[in-house]
Amino acid sequence: MKRIHLNGFKIAGVGHTAIGLWRHPDNQAWRYKTLEYWIETAKTLEAGKFDSLFMADFSGIADVYGGNADAAFREAIHLPLNDPMLAISAMAAATSHLGFGLTVATTYEQPYSFARRMTTLDHLTNGRIGWNIVTSAVGSAARNLGYDHQVPHDERYAMADEFMDVVYKLWEGSWQDDAVVMDRERNVFIEPRKVHALQHEGKYYRVLDAFMCEPSPQRTPALFQAGASDKGKAFAARHAEAVFLVNPNVPGLRRTVDEIRQLTAQAGRDPRAVKIMAGISVIVAPTDKEAQEKAADQMRFISLTGTLARQASLMQLDFSKMDLDRPLEYIETDGIRSAMERFTRNDPERTWTPRQVAETMSRSAGGITIIGSPATVADQMEELLERADLDGFNINDHMPLRTLPDFVELVVPELQQRGRVWRAYEGSTLRESITGQPGPRLDARHYGAGFRKP
Amino acid sequence: MKRIHLNGFKIAGVGHTAIGLWRHPDNQAWRYKTLEYWIETAKTLEAGKFDSLFMADFSGIADVYGGNADAAFREAIHLPLNDPMLAISAMAAATSHLGFGLTVATTYEQPYSFARRMTTLDHLTNGRIGWNIVTSAVGSAARNLGYDHQVPHDERYAMADEFMDVVYKLWEGSWQDDAVVMDRERNVFIEPRKVHALQHEGKYYRVLDAFMCEPSPQRTPALFQAGASDKGKAFAARHAEAVFLVNPNVPGLRRTVDEIRQLTAQAGRDPRAVKIMAGISVIVAPTDKEAQEKAADQMRFISLTGTLARQASLMQLDFSKMDLDRPLEYIETDGIRSAMERFTRNDPERTWTPRQVAETMSRSAGGITIIGSPATVADQMEELLERADLDGFNINDHMPLRTLPDFVELVVPELQQRGRVWRAYEGSTLRESITGQPGPRLDARHYGAGFRKP
């Protein structure tokens, strides 16, 4: 029986996928500012034997809709938004096995400082850190982070390719395993000849010296990837150990899964080495009827305008200037083809209007929405797993401090009984949870392992 | 009776000030990689009613001595070095009043991302974050963080001036206090007209949009400054709420204190509004004799070569190429005048050789070293406070998990009995602890308060 990998999916802010749901009287998303909120969330996920808490992030403001940020502020679309990295050590201190996946865009980082932050977290968590590698299509990020214009999609991926080489050199190549000797007699803490300067001078990055950090348990964090564009899939095939997909259309989802497995094999890796997780939302109650009532009670708060404004930012298309009832043709915009494809190409027999897109999205609390009793939810998760050839799920935390505890209390025991969710963590690092293989380090056949020193 | 402000002084690594001391059999600095180490340290400081844990940091490798990094690796000089920001939330969860000061160089940060990180920490700690503003003279940083050459000292301060304006706009000016309304009826989480875009286009930084984070308890973190160059002192007079000085020469220390108070008054602020802390090391035991024995047991591990190599990096002068016994003339190097001044100008009647500098430094565990019984240590701290007109101390943690517990167990009760250390925190934020004034926000007369929206 194939194990189902579970991950919680959140942002360090209020409105994530189910825009408008903050108005539900029981919604506690506004407590994102407190440590108690994060510690409670982490403990819940560990009780449910989740692989990780997977943190989304956005580098800029959703200001495409109407050409300004008013809707984003009013409807709390990815706003307010704190940095997701900073609550991790508090959550790590309250847990022992739960991993933490962080979304960070390469485009706006210095690889040297970024690598140091990830290594520090990997040390402090004892090897429980993952990185969701993105390049960020948000125009607002460019306007606030030092670029005159948004970096074009293909160039962002060229930058990301070089960025990856630099961080592999830092994480895998700079310090040998036995560099730290702590030899008191000889007064040698670190053996200088076992630490290597990078001397990296590329097109986008220049890093000459050795890394400042000693190797952490995983060295390279567990690598996630979430882009489903052609460049994104090729990038995933080379780098990702887990891929996160959001697609409400199951045949479309399956097509992307197949492509990624094929590309992974072409890249010389085991096509099953990449674990594929789909984004879902779950509304569960003891009976199907109660679950449907609970769903109705929640979904009535989802805002159509807010959903449109969020999609406008994700697709970088201003829906406020478009006829909402005119079918969308295939639209080639910079880097967001894949988002559009979900609606226009995955189901070739139908075309979609912007209103239909928004209505479909607003009937979901994020990704494919599953509503029902524990048995119904487990059935549907199993069916989805098989139909789309998935390895697991990222479960959207649409009602913080309620959605995930409900899932852990009601669905996890059902899935455990079916042999689908493990009863105890088998490894101690996030990489071991994700890959199911022993050992905290990158597989020897992984591209990043090529940067190791003999 | 003037209260003495206490702060712990550390790096997120092994060798900080007392190079070589890692060889002491009881030295636990190597445990810096674990959360337990940080949580234990924070609990100790809070038990001693310290204002803060003050974290030093270095953006690059100490590779001046001998023209390479061998000594830095061998003797663990600021190496290995993790990012100090990432253990804070774990420490904050284990404490309730202790503040956390972070050294971050403006030169290598994007102000928008940096401001977001600090605001996030200020939220999660409930207003307990401070920032030690530096510009970083370490050449290695430039070579790894995107610059072709080290940015010259005066230009670094010009960049820092603009950087400060940008972060004040983000922290003080972008979101009004009442921007977050959470009005469920009107579907308004944030009132758009109460959030202001920066439209900042300066010489070094371009930040056009509004901030992504809602205001944190302190908004601007408590501001520390540590540079004692002329530019540094002027910068402190404008921005700093606390200044941290290291000078083994007490009359020299006093001279710098007087200058800073005078410049602060000239900047239109209360000259006492800037709290001045000096770096000290304390070795305490129940009796003077035991303390002297303990000091001898520790100081024998301090390495002369390691101390020279560390000074070489701090001063950016390669002592390995100099005659160790030829007196140093006044040496004008970029931005490190002040470090040299400690030895060449503070005591105008003597000149110093590199060997004398290193020997003096190696007789200290960091800053002015005080050795004795609790009463002796308290006497000397009080005397130093008066002679140099200080407000408090940064106490170097030269023997981690031993130095600070000893101080808290033996010296703090003595100082409390003398009315010099408070028995309970009076405010809840770091700013309140540092300034002694009620209220978590910047004083209305502070330069940064000028960026507030009416």
TrEMBL record, chains A, B:
The protein, known as: LLM class flavin-dependent oxidoreductase
Similarity field: Belongs to the NtaA/SnaA/DszA monooxygenase family.
Luciferase-like domain boundaries: 29-386
Location of the region described as Disordered in the Swiss-Prot/TrEMBL record: 433-454
PANTHER family: ALKANESULFONATE MONOOXYGENASE-RELATED (PTHR30011), C2H2 FINGER DOMAIN TRANSCRIPTION FACTOR (EUROFUNG)-RELATED (PTHR30011:SF16)
Lineage, broadest ranks: Bacteria, Pseudomonadati, Pseudomonadota, Betaproteobacteria, Burkholderiales
Organism whose genome encodes this protein: Verticiella sediminum
Listed GO MF terms: monooxygenase activity; oxidoreductase activity, acting on paired donors, with incorporation or reduction of molecular oxygen
SUPFAM superfamilies attached to this UniProt entry: Bacterial luciferase-like (SSF51679)
